[in-house]
Design goal:
By secondary structure, the protein is α+β, with helices and mostly antiparallel strands. 48% of the residues lie in helices and 15% in strands. The chain contains 20 helices and 14 strands.
Length: 542
Amino acid sequence: MNDNHPAGQGPTPPLTVADVLALPVLAAGRPEVVTGMPHLDRPVRWVHITELTDPASFLKGGELVLTTGMPLPTDAAGVRRYVDELAGVGAAALVIELVRRYHRPPDALVDACRLRGLPLVTLAKDVNFLEVTQVVHALLLGNQADAMRRTQRIHEAFTALTLRGAGPEDVVRAAAEMSGRTVVLENLVHQALICEPSGLTVEEALADWEQRSRATGPGDNTAIRGPEGWLTAPVEYQGERWGRVAMLPARTDGPAFGPEDVTLLERTAMALTVARLIHPTPWERTAHRNALLDLVEQRHRSAEDARARCAALGLPTDRGHFVAALVDLRAGKGGGVETESRLMQELSTAGVPALVGELAPDRLGILLALRTSQPWRPIVERLSGTVLGLAPEAVVSVGSEVTDLTDTARSFRAAARVAEATPPGQPLPPDRSFHELTDIGLRRLLYALREDPRVQEYTERQLRRLIDHDIQHGTDLLTTLRHYLEAAGNKTTAARRGGLSRETMYQRLRTIERLLARDLESGDQRTELHVALTALDVLRAD
């Protein structure tokens, strides 16, 4: 009695012929399986004691038939007819006692049972048939009561989910946990939006998803379909078919889907319909966001899982290169939903496979999957134009190209570094409307590091004495130092920029050297001061 479901959650497997034969009440009769050994896993629905020549007329299928052999016909044709009727009605097995009429099973009976695949079991010792029925029926009725209680728990669990406004991820996760099987939610174009694996890896569950899903035909009710034997149920939205939820069979040979699985999946579909009404955000958008977050944060268990997950969403994972981009809308400006929708529309119109989703408040992520010969710059330029048309203060940052889907986290990290190094109002490069790594110079690098205490401490240590002197004496030596450093140490140019005579410039530079204990003729020391002064400008502008 193997159970493929979590303890205490899944349905109790049906009582089989093998299970009944192992019960002490029958085992005492020393049962021997004469024919039908491969069919001992047949479920037993009831036990029927008979001494009639035509017992099949009183059966409905699934019965374990007990007989002393007294009513068996004496002729071979009659025996065949007797067995044909039992097999035709779907009897689980025939158990004959070898005590009264027979001491060995008749050859005609053995041959007929073997021909029809009907398990024939002999009992070498006398068995109380009434006691057998009492024991087996008690077990069957107990299983039915357990099934009713489990069905009630299913209804209660999904009612609770609906009342608390659970989202689709919660509903699908509950279905997978209660069934012990993998559950997948897909839309009408066979994109797997949510997958909760149980007993399978994501790769095993979603590999070649669209092809496998299309081979599993549609249906208006909950039923087992397709070559893989998926249990599927339709999911509706506002009276229209929206998609379906599928429960996948176990990877190993386990119990087939039963009535409780059907009930569970039907309640799952109903809860998803309600969730679709409560949560208006398109679930495709949520699926893109979750897939992007999994890639960015590298939450996949394996590279194969990542590829299968993205491919099931319609993103080709065998493309020549991938490019990540970030859209920062700047806090409080809003417009994220409209911008996201427009970007997805632009990419769809351009025929560019991509994932688009919100990675954080006011930040959208884009992952482009491009063919080897397909340039990414025109595509990003087009997207940037759309973004700036909707949100002029937005910043579009692009990461590095990568050739493997599992390296996209690196591309997103690069795009994030660009975004962090882009202060508000940063002018765009003259030839494009987005920012990339090559745009980051010293000032933008220091802007990205402005909150680092080491940068702040370095700036203060280098310039504190000069700043204090200016404050105490009302001078502006800091500006003089800036002119000198910007002139690359050319005193004449520095004096002209500051509107000073050469003599005054020389005097001020000597004062700066004295205050800072620095040699301004040293290229290294001038560089150190230039970095500190640039950092100070960044810190004061923040």
